[in-house]
Design brief:
This protein is α/β, with parallel strands linked by helices. It has helices at residues 47-69, 105-112, 210-220, 260-277, 338-345, 352-362, 425-428; strands spanning 2-5, 28-30, 75-76, 89-98, 130-134, 139-143, 155-162, 168-174, 193-198, 230-237, 282-286, 316-318, 323-327, 330-335, 392-398, 402-409, 414-423, 430-435, 441-447. The strands form 3 sheets. Strands 1-19-18-9-10-11-12 form a 7-stranded mixed β-sheet. Strand 7 (155-162) and strand 8 (168-174) form a beta hairpin. Pfam families: DNA_pol_D_N (PF18018), DNA_pol_E_B (PF04042).
């Protein structure tokens, strides 16, 4: 990990820099139109999302199943299994996990009135969990799948046989993955262009982030020598005010910040930082779970009017959460970490990178929404379906940095994707530098 370490004094009344180092112009495009609300109708039932999810992904999962198992095997609906229950076949549907430890409002009421004592838990997985497959009409219990490795809402194809008890014995399972390859061709190997990803600034709750942030901005702007890479794009991926529900003493707190003066001070500080940074490069701000925007996914961009100095620069923009955008010839897709954290609660994937890779192969940004993760009640489509393979697939606000490059076979082309878990800056003083030609991700430590 590259480390930036320097001692300098901070005068909050003065601007960070008196001059600017002009970077190369950055090719940028916001591709998140499907995450932006056209209407705000909350009268719909959430069942429509699962119906649309299966419908949107049925063609691609059928293609992947034939690619994996061949064209000879029959693909049946659950209602057709009764006609020939002993035949080996493929069934397509949406997974549902029956979990005894899963929180429910009835259990919460019982706890409130002390009817039945409930244990406090952070992971709701047990050996009694069952996996059920649902299609448009019926459902069937699956045997032979490790329930701890999947979550509710995942679309898949299973190969196996229905037994005499009416359960489906699974021999193999297939997931859809991204529906299409990335539309972009990566930059030449010698382009030497980079993007910087960071998250979890926690400006309203962390008192020791400012020095490291200023050091990072000075390095990005070229004021710490000539060794800095050509970085012309910075993403702040959520956690601007707070990235966790725990305060400095480790106690669980609400989603609101107690002092309005803390919020005002934090926003003014962010405005100064973003204004300074966007003078020399493109800056994109995504919201997080505790940032000032709507709570349900997809979160809409933070209103840039709260950053009057920064919004004067055309290079300062706001994005949705999840977010999809183009930088140079690289397609970025990802979230501020809520879907990955939720998967960790309802499976045994404790490593965020494992959960991120799982969502990539599942072909869905937030499979547990709306079951255990709040989202808008979409009726006409499920916008979280992974339509194009991202070159960089990220999740932010994690406890540490982690990254790997994987390959995915679309049948006619094999394409690479960099998976990256962006660490919380307030906790690790670390950002992530992405090489836009090789997709290599490197942590940048900013210690003062």
């Amino acid at each position: 990990m590259k480390s930036l370490a320097v001692d300098f004094e901070i005068n909050p009344e003065e601007k960070l820099f008196e001059e600017s180092v002009i970077k190369d112009e950055c090719v940028y495009a916001d591709l998140s139109s499907k995450f932006k609300f056209r209407t705000r109708d909350f009268s719909r039932q959430y069942a429509h999302i699962y119906t649309k999810r299966l419908l949107q992904m049925k063609d691609i999962i059928t293609k992947r199943a034939k690619q994996k198992w061949g064209d000879e095997l029959k693909i049946r609906r659950l209602a057709e299994l009764q006609d020939d229950s002993n035949s080996r076949c493929v069934v397509i549907g949406t997974l549902y996990k029956d979990q005894e430890l899963k929180p429910s409002i009835l259990k919460e009421i019982s706890e409130e009135f002390q009817l039945v004592p409930q244990k406090k838990m952070v992971r709701f997985v047990s050996d009694t969990d069952k996996v059920i497959l649902e299609d448009e009409l019926q459902r069937i219990v699956l045997i032979g799948i490790d329930a701890s490795t999947v979550v509710t809402g995942t679309v898949c194809a299973v190969l196996g046989v229905e037994d005499a008890s009416g359960k489906f014995n699974v021999e193999s399972i297939c997931f859809p993955g991204p529906q299409a390859p990335s539309p972009f061709i990566l930059l030449p190997k010698n382009s030497n262009k980079y993007a910087l990803l960071l998250s979890g600034l926690d400006l309203a709750t962390s008192s020791d982030t400012l020095l490291s942030l200023q050091l990072l901005i000075q390095w990005l702007s070229g004021w710490l020598g000539s060794e800095q890479e050509t970085t012309s794009f910075v993403l702040i991926a959520g956690g601007l005010l707070r990235s966790t529900s725990e305060d400095l003493e480790g106690k669980i707190v609400g989603t609101s910040i107690d002092s309005s003066s803390d919020i005002t001070t934090a926003l003014q500080l962010a405005d100064e930082l973003f204004a300074e940074l966007s003078e020399t490069m493109n800056v994109e701000l995504m919201p997080g779970q505790f940032d000032p925007t709507n709570y349900l996914l997809p979160q809409q961009p933070v209103n840039l009017r709260v950053f009057p100095k920064a919004m004067a620069n055309k290079t300062f923009n706001g994005g949705t959460n999840p977010h999809k955008f183009q930088v140079e010839n690289v397609l970025f897709t990802g979230s501020s970490g809520e879907p990955i954290t939720d998967i960790g609660r309802y499976s045994k994937m404790e490593d965020p990178l494992d959960a991120l890779e799982a969502t990539f192969h599942w072909g869905h940004l937030a499979p547990t929404a709306p079951d255990t993760l709040g989202c808008y009640p979409y009726y006409d489509e499920d916008p979280f379906v992974l339509e194009e393979q991202p070159d960089v697939f990220f999740s932010s606000n994690h406890s540490s940095f982690n990254s790997k490059i994987i390959e995915f076979n679309h049948g006619d082309v094999v394409q690479k994707t960099a998976l990256v878990c962006i660490p919380s800056f307030s906790k690790t003083k670390t950002a992530v530098l992405v090489n836009l030609s090789t997709l290599e991700c490197s942590p940048i430590g900013c210690e003062t």
